[in-house]
Amino acid sequence: MRILSGIQPTGSIHIGNYLGAIKQWTELQEKNECLFFIADLHALTVPYQSEELQKNILETATSHLAAGLEPEKSILFVQSEIKEHTELCWLLNTVCPLGDLERMTQFKEKARQFRNHLNAGLLVYPVLQAADILLYKTEAVPVGKDQVQHIELARTIARKFNQRFGKTFPEPKALLAKQGAKIMALNNPRQKMSKSLGPQNYLSLFEEPKEISKKIAAAVTDSGKQIKYDLKRKAGLANLLTIYSSFSQKSIKELEKEFRGKSYAYFKKSLSELLTNSLEPFRRKRKELLLREVYVRETLKLGAKRARTIAESAMSEIRQKVGLV
Ligand code: ATP
Ligand code: MG
């Protein structure tokens, strides 16, 4: 299968990004044709520092290699280096229903979060995402739950384009992780963990042991006593149980049994230890890669070259179909 997915260089990647998306990517790259990209154009839709952007892109690339992406097995590139993404975005804008964009949950949430920076790019974000996906005739997109609505829209856009201009794009399907498709914020279990919500809401994949203990100890839970998975009444604890289960290969049922009669503090301490050990290889790999900037840059350069070959050929077919020469 042709697989593609992206991540924005909007901050340190966190365990939600890993469990929902990147972990799937590392598994899928073994047997599929995979493209993964750093969505720098998407990141421009929210406030950012232009002088920091290149550093953040490099940092995100380094983080992905540290998280297990292998350039021999998948193509890693920077979105803005392939001009065809924006060209196709424009064409898809002309087939995408406006009403669908206004209904997107992410648009509504980000419009609220960045009230004073509400630009048209934030509204059109899912069309650029559809262009990212369709440009490579992608069949499956491994993402977190929050992105499923956008993938549905990409399917709608593909269908409309195909109806009007003849069969061009496969309808891409979303691939969701069995567990961890929506990790919630540590400081607010009703909100998804997000890079852009600040370091108190997330646990970085490269968090130092001291910080892990601090953040897990401070994670919002209810004032109950029983370690039990109850999404409605114990959303914070349920989130921590999901994280525990995802990193330990123990089921939630097993964990409830293991921690029966134990306090929340005891459970949190055990979770901190688990995370300290589980994230250690990521921290180590990242430290190694930070010393190999040239290698990371070369990887991105080669990735862009490979992606460009696919994108240029697809775009020439698409231009013909819509009547451009
Ligand atoms: P931002 O706040 O800038 O939007 P983000 O944390 O939402 O950052 P993205 O770059 O938007 O991260 O998304 C990258 C991938 O991570 C997507 O596939 C997305 O669905 C997934 N993802 C993001 N947050 C979570 C989460 N809390 N749980 C599981 N998957 C997530
Ligand atoms: Mg996001």
Keywords:
binds magnesium ion, 56% helix, 3-stranded parallel sheet, 13 helices, two-stranded parallel ribbon, mainly alpha, binds adenosine-5'-triphosphate, 5 strands, 325 residues
Write a short abstract of this structure.
The protein is mainly alpha-helical and 325 residues long. It has 13 helices and five strands. Strand 1 (2-7), helix 1 (15-28) and strand 2 form a beta-alpha-beta unit.
Protein model, in words:
The strands form two sheets. Strands 1-2-3 form a three-stranded parallel sheet. It has a two-stranded parallel sheet with strand order 4-5. The protein has helices at 15-28, 40-43, 50-66, 84-93, 98-102, 105-113, 120-135, 148-165, 209-218, 235-248, 252-258, 264-290, 293-322, and strands spanning 2-7, 33-38, 74-78, 140-142, 173-175. It is mostly helical and 325 residues long. Helix 1 links the parallel strand 1 and strand 2 (33-38). The two termini are 30 Å apart. It is globular, with a radius of gyration of 20 Å. The protein has 13 helices and five strands. Bound molecules: adenosine-5'-triphosphate and magnesium ion.
Average pLDDT value? 97
Q: What is the helical fraction, as a range of percent?
A: 55-70%
Distance between the termini: 30 Å
- The parts where pLDDT drops under 50 for at least 5 residues are none
Order of helices and strands: EHEHHEHHHHEHEHHHHH
The backbone outline, from C-alpha atoms, is globular
Spatial order of the strands in the main sheet?
1-2-3
Our count of helices gives: 13
Structural class: mainly alpha
Q: Return Rg in Å.
A: 20 Å
Strand fraction equals 5-15%
Largest sheet: 3 strands, parallel
- Record field, number of beta strands: 5
Bound molecules: adenosine-5'-triphosphate, magnesium ion
